[in-house]
Amino acid sequence: MEFTILGSGGAMPVPRPFCQCKLCNNARNNPTSQRNSCSIFLNDINTLIDCPEDIGESINRENIKQIDHLFLTHWHPDHTFGLRVIAEAIYDFIERKPTHEIKLYTGKKVYETLKEKFPTISYYIEKLKVFKLNLVEDGDILNINNIKIKIIGFQGKESDWYVYHFEENNKKLVYAPCDTLHFKNYINHKDIDVLVHECGIFSHDKVSSEISFPNMIKRFKEITPKKVILTHIEEIELNRWGLEHLDKLKEEYPEINFEYAHDGMKINL
């Protein structure tokens, strides 16, 4: 399996619009320092997981020619509002028909919330017919070509958040990019070759809505993945702590084999 990190950033990309800080100005002058919002692509089966508002830029950068499957982890705008870009890119407005149909996978509660927050999704599915909706739930297993995909809901059958477990030839990657504070059943998912996991917040402070870096490290020690790649690296955290803090964290936790994602990173299993 070959994965490409399309976006390694958080809710705000790097550079952040309007921001004139050192971090953002450096990213404007150095494309390798830029971070689009969070998404990943499984090249083997043309599969996209999440589509933030800047997904078009990420797709063009990697010269992705087709998407056949699209999985959503949760409804948040930085993971779903790029659906418009995808939908209208594969619709022929002159012939008034889609040039391609993408199979869209997500949980029932995620879709119900998405219809409230982004009601155009119904239009894309029912009228333009660019997406074919497939509702999934915790415990489902899909097989696409030779790749097995396990659906993992944070709260079981009625989940608002999902992560996805990909397996081929006994090689396993779990993609858990956001809001993993709610991922209470993580302990059931051991024997992982690569865990792509949100970066959390660098602070030791307790925040009710985010996982702290120390608690995240504690989780990794419990499930012992062979390798961890940290993604969803927030601009506000980088700005607050500085880029050098990333290296300090690696020195602080040498027992965990982790590295930081960057846009365009390839993961081969």
The number of E-state strands comes to: 16
Share of β-strand residues: 25-35%
CATH class: Alpha Beta
Order of strands, widest sheet: 8-7-4-3-2-1-16
State the distance separating the first and last CA atoms: 5 Å
According to CATH, the fold-level topology is Metallo-beta-lactamase, Chain A
Instruction: Give me the number of helical elements.
Output: 9
What would the keywords be for this entry?
single chain; alpha/beta; Metallo-beta-lactamase, Chain A; seven-stranded mixed sheet; 9 helices; 27% strand
Protein architecture, described:
The chain starts with a strand and ends with a strand. The radius of gyration is 18 Å and the shape is globular. A hairpin with a 2-residue loop joins strand 11 and strand 12 (171-176). The protein is built from nine helices and 16 strands. It has a seven-stranded mixed sheet. Strands 9-10-11-12-13-14-15 form a seven-stranded mixed sheet, with no helix packed on it. The protein has one domain: Ribonuclease Z/Hydroxyacylglutathione hydrolase-like (Metallo-beta-lactamase, Chain A, 4-Layer Sandwich). The protein has helices at residues 22-29, 55-62, 77-80, 83-89, 108-117, 120-128, 213-223, 235-241, 244-252, and strands at residues 2-7, 39-42, 47-49, 69-71, 91-92, 97-98, 102-107, 131-136, 141-144, 147-153, 162-168, 171-176, 194-198, 227-231, 258-260, 266-268. The protein is of the alpha/beta class.
